[in-house]
Amino acid sequence: MITLEGMITVAEAARRLNRSIEQVRRYLREGRLRGQRIGNQWFVEERALEAPRGEPLIPPELVERIRRRREAIRKRIGHDLDVVELIRRSREGH
Amino acid sequence: MARFCIDASAVLAWLIPAQRTRVIEETWTRLIRGEDLISAPPLLYAECTSVLREQVGETLTHEDALATVEDLFSLPVDAPTERRLYTRALELAERFQRRKAYDMQYLAVAELHGAELLTLDRGLFDAASQLGVPVRLLA
What we know:
CATH topology of chain B: Rossmann fold
Strand content of chain A: 5-15%
Number of domains of chain B: 1
Number of strands of chain B: 5
Strand order of the largest sheet of chain A: 1-3-2
Distance between the termini of chain B: 24 Å
CATH superfamily of chain B: 5'-nuclease
Shape of chain A: elongated
Oligomer: heterodimer
Low-confidence stretches of chain B: none
Distance between the termini of chain A: 52 Å
Strand content of chain B: 5-15%
Structural class of chain A: alpha+beta
């Protein structure tokens, strides 16, 4: 019999741990968080809810991916963007 | 553990090429390494997506925009949806005589969550300062 008592969704675990949903799924796959997979959906054991120690808030591979894309775009367009102005124009257009 | 509220300018300045100041670098280095909590109104996702879309064909490719939105959603941001966020944003828009309430949503989250607001927007910085909400101008 399947029981969900004491289990929370991945989204709720991510919110409580201040991690992304992607990170929580990875912790579950790696066995760093205890949980149960029912069908296609993971549930996290609430009692054991603790972020793995020493884990950065934003995974290094994500930081590196963002840095590489940002630099590639900068190289291609040859200048920086004024993000405050872009947001202002976007808001005015709505 | 500190709590920060980030606005779209602070996020876009990290996701796409923007005028990068030392304070932006230092702030993101802290957010990446630290145990701080990051929050923002759900508007963050809509604004970033719109700005990225508007840049497609100008400075960004469609693939750049798609990949950037994917990465935006990988950031651990707590985006509250409670009603009080929106009613407070309206009150703040009235107080600061804003015709629209976009930036006031960031201010409302910072205020309601006791977070320090991070922005490159001088107007939002000034409003937060007047309200007594802790704020850091990343420009």
